Amino acid sequence: xxxxxxxxxxATTPVDPIVAAAMASFQEQYYANPSSxxxxxxxxxxxxxxxxxxxxxxxxxxxxxxxxxxxxxEADNLALVGLFEALGQPFHMITSRIEHPAILETCKYLExxxxxxxxxxxxxxxxxxxxxxxxxxxxxTRLVSIMTAxxxxxxxxxxxxxxxxxxxxxxxxxxxxxxxxxxIPVDVAQGIDLLSLSAHKIYGPKGCGALFxxxxxxxxxxxxxGGQESGWRxxxxxxxxxxxxxxxxxxxSRGMVKETARLVRLRERLIEGIALQIPNAYVIGxxxxxxxxxxxxGFAGQEGEAVKLLLALDEAGxxxxxxxxxxxxxxxxxxxVLQAMGFNPLQARGxxxxxxxxxxxxxxxxxxxxxxxGIVSDLRPITSRIDANR
Length: 390
Ligand code: PLP
Description:
By secondary structure, the protein is of the alpha/beta class. It has helices at 17-29, 39-58, 72-87, 101-112, 130-136, 159-168, 239-277, 306-315, 336-340, 362-378, 382-389; strands spanning 5-6, 66-69, 92-96, 116-120, 141-145, 172-176, 194-198, 209-213, 281-283, 294-299, 318-319, 321-322, 352-355.
């Protein structure tokens, strides 16, 4: 297989070699069940608890507030359904129209169970406005769930204002920080009550996530059984995954300030290079209030060609995304996120996402800038090529 330059770090990140090595050596030596009382079990328990501290540190939480789950999706489900089960009805919650399906589909499920959900719109950059939240919040609003940063547009939400409004009205605040944690500073001390994480977005393994639940908040578990994770989530722990998650969180915490600045430099070079060479390119989402390595683009008049463009880039050795990885089976359908941001259905089908990560280099960005203009111009709709020849 020829070498691919991987620019799809929002879909998932490569496992950091240090994480992979830690997981491999753990897996070989430490197979005991962390609930076992013998020495081997106690050793594994210690290592799981160390990983809990490492994950907690990434978001400035107390380790007792971290519940390991099987994914970001499970963390989102546990937050919403767990709170609904704990508080009972009437249950009104507020979310946004651009959340990940892990939130939106869970909201649909809660509606089926009798909850009421308000879906806030966003502006053309993908930001939720505090006025919209103020208008929607009610005395029976129990929960507000707004993602820290969006996976499709990259836009970072104004969490402090949204948290403030939620708390002033007595609602808890949950944020899906799966895309944001490890990429921008995330601190639960700003008033976050529940927060979802996923290991595979921070150079850790797939199939491992966590939910932060502020001490004193009660949620009902989704899984019932042996009472692991202090009863919040029964099932023998995915110990290898948890060790990898902890190591990934520790590496990310240590290097974040430098890495964020480096990724912003790469992102800006990419955006500026594209703007110089491809006049019909436009940036989707907020120009600056966006995730460090996240570039979402459209090409005016060529939106119908997005999938062809993605495949041509793939052929040229670049892995990028159309919209979000979760919707690859719907690649030809307009993105609900872009539609919520005001793009028409054709434009909403035409978004491309280039997401840079830890292992990308300046040379790779420059190579992309050499290749992209030719591919875009080859895909010009037939009419404009005829026009250009005139
Ligand atoms: N939330 C957001 C914002 C995501 O981008 C994703 C994954 O793409 C998830 C949740 C789901 O995480 P996981 O893949 O760990 O289930």
